[in-house]
Here is the input.
Amino acid sequence: MLNNEKLHSYIEGLFPDRNDLFSEMENYATEHHVPIMELSGIETMLQLLRIHGSKRILEVGTAIGYSALRMAAALPDARIVTIERDLERIQTAKEYIGRSGRAEQIVLIEGDALLVEDVIQSHGPFDAIFIDAAKGQYRKFFELYAKYLTPDGMVVTDNVLFKGLVAEAEIESKRTRNLVKKIDEFNRWLMNHSDYDSVILPVGDGIAISKKKR
Ligand SMILES: C[S@@+](CC[C@H](N)C(=O)[O-])C[C@H]1O[C@@H](n2cnc3c(N)ncnc32)[C@H](O)[C@@H]1O
Here is the structure.
């Protein structure tokens, strides 16, 4: 097995330092317990988006704007439409986006992702969709927005391995057990979806890469 802690630290240590703003955002996320995407997960996603050449990206779950800004910096020609419902995080995201010099690349939609389809539709279609919001609702987000993908579109879904818990036979906390069950059901549904080819990569918290079949 190549997936061990030592190797993980080695790989993370090889990623070049992020710029000052991104480091500040990473520290803010740690201090304020904001769950931003793990480093190896986001670096993998950014590389896939570069190879894919995504220009129009929809993100479900902005938090403080970290992944949106990382995508904007990695793909200077891309435009990112990102949805967030938490007012405090929206405010923080706006401040960081304002300071980043990349505000023209990002459209922040304020509201519940399950209720803003009309607005999102007017910004589509999208080459890529990144799902990183309430884990129990992944299938709903996927079903709602995958129809706005371009023919070669792809979907990246984060946290599909949920700290490895999806492979655990017994989970004590009922709440966690229910959430893990929902993620497992999503994974099985996704992997058997007739319109998408999907693969789950054990990087970060586990990311699923789904490509629309032609
Ligand atoms: C894991 S964080 C996003 C992290 C961000 N993508 C990053 O890596 O920098 C998930 C965010 O999704 C938001 N969220 C959860 N469910 C949502 C929904 N239904 N609509 C909009 N935002 C939602 C939460 O408030 C939270 O800020």
